[in-house]
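Record filed here:
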Amino acid sequence: MSNYFFPLNSSPFVVPLALASDDVKPEDFKAFYFDGTQGLYIHPNIWHEGIFPLTPEASFYDCQGKVHARISCNIAQEFGFFLSVPLKKLDN
């Protein structure tokens, strides 16, 4: 299943992604920052978390592939903790 997300109001956002694997672990995830001027296309089999906007309000256009087959991983239940991504404020 592929997914596409695009911010409708130019809101910056962060998305944790991990390469395809049968045994995904928290350390496999990398957080990617988007400044709100572009969207994200997620290829099939790529592990991903939700989209985390960095503004109080955000709207996104999203589109999913025709086949919505998925395998979920609940990090908190399986590993006993949440993913944490320290963010630094960028200078304009």
In short: The mean pLDDT is 86. Residues 74 and 82 are 9 Å apart (CA to CA). The longest helix spans residues 75-79. The chain is about 5% helix and 30% strand.
